[in-house]
Amino acid sequence: MYSKSQDKYDEFSLPRFTKPYLPPILAVYMTAHLVLFLVLRSARLYEMARAQKLIVYLSSALDLLCSYAIIPACIGIACVGCTVLLYRCAYVAAPWYIFLKRSKKIGWMVIITAGISCVLGIFLVYQTCVRQHVLQHISARNELKCMCIADSRSVFHSYVTPAKIFVNDNYVGTAELISKEVLELYSTYTVQGQFKAYTSDSTKLSSCAQGLLGSVTIERVHHVQKPVGLYGLASFIRLQCMNILKRSTPEHSALMLASICGYKEPMHQLGMTDLFRVCGISHVVCVSGTHLALFSLLIAKILSHMPLSLFTQRILTLCLSMVFVMSCGMPLSALRAWGLVACSVFADFFRAQRHVISSVSCTALIMIVVNPWCACDVSFILSVSCVIGLALFGNYGNFLVEWMYVKLLRTLSYLRSQSEGHLKRVLELLIHGIQTKALTSALQVASMSLCAQVSTLPFSIGFFQGVSFIAVLSNVILVPCMVYTALLAVLTIVCAPCVLVANLLLCVGSYATSAILLVLKLFSKFPSAYVSTDGHSAGAALSAAVFLVVIAYKWPRPGTHDVY
């Protein structure tokens, strides 16, 4: 029978300002400001749009700092003070007066975003107040029905699996299952064991912030129900792909299982996760926008040869992409990417103009409405902030790359005009090499990598207590190699019926993986490849956030139009 742990730290108490129930509200507030910023930008209220952009980054820093209980409630006063100091009262009041006069055109968007924020705030307060009742209700049950929603991970000779908890077939919350064996994704288990609640006063602060009620130590499994329907299809596809990839070498198998199937446990066991983190390319092994884009392009190419309308092709691509996301375990980064694809499809259907920030804001709001606790998830925060950063700072990165490229080309051309003989020939070959498409593509990758790293810097410092200075070089050299290796693994899965061809492709992929790991180990040994900020994370994160605000507000745009 379930018995609630009598640990003194498990007593229920209402959260204070720095407790982990507030960050979801702040995240919604930040996302609402992003939507409002786009609307103001579209309405040509430039001064107010710039003020909104500042509030976005101040909210981001506020969300990060409050999540880790570093800064007390006075940071709210500091936020208002920074706004007044940077914009002065006149610059803040005048645009809002204009906004009120033009509220007939864009006021509905403000009402929607503010309404969603209020509803979610009420929801979170309600969840906090009824949490004690839910915990007592779970503790009094003899049996619980649990549906695994993620892969099992190994922790101290046992396995921990996030799962949805059902009481009388009613969903009551999410908890972690602790078992001696690996539990299958999307399977439903009827179990008996011991329940221990997580509280904001315990060491499970981050787990509590993500909405986890506690942990269930499984003593006995009474019944196992395999996934059915769409979950069953996704689980079957995933299992078949994993069985094929497991025939390769351990390193290649672990890398491809993480990149294609979203199964990262083998990488953790082989110690590859820290290597990718130090080199700043952990996003490559997380199923996200790049993987979904490649899959969608492949499906769209196949459907283009069928007698179907364009809209039907896009809907089918969207549905098949959702099956792919489900077969990867539905990570939040992949759901965010799928939401962007859906926004793009429906924007074309309604003949609406597509904007990156509007799409990611809409996707983030929907995800937070469905699951408010995802606003405290690391992958969600990094994924959304990365896309927003690419949209806001993409012009800056392209401008810097083009400026450096033109300067280098002009310098070499001048040296060539002043040279003779073999030196002139060498300079001509060098100029010809610089003008190749491969180098231009590499510079674009470097620009995007730099923008993504800078935009996620405040969160990366707070979450990982360190900064990778080798990330840009790693992304330029290794990301294309990883993409081709993943495509080779997909081709291996397609050619699985022909065992000889599949084994040959697995052999080639294993050699490619060995080369990638060799380069990663070499990069990780560079001096200052990864600098730890442990002990100074709060100040470094706040400085990075202020740096982003200054760039976004003070640095003039390099182009005649903004990519919003």
From TrEMBL:
Keywords, comma-separated and alphabetical: Cell membrane, Membrane, Transmembrane, Transmembrane helix
Localization annotation: Cell membrane
Keyword Lipid metabolism part of the UniProt annotation: no
Membrane-spanning ranges: 20-40, 61-86, 106-126, 275-303, 315-335, 356-373, 379-401, 469-494, 500-523, 535-555
One Pfam assignment: Competence
Recorded superkingdom: Bacteria
Membrane topology per record: Multi-pass membrane protein
Residue span, ComEC/Rec2-related protein domain: 272-556
Magnesium in keyword set: no
Major site of localization recorded for this protein: membrane
Gene Ontology CC terms: plasma membrane
This protein's name: ComEC/Rec2-like protein
UniProt source species: Fannyhessea vaginae DSM 15829
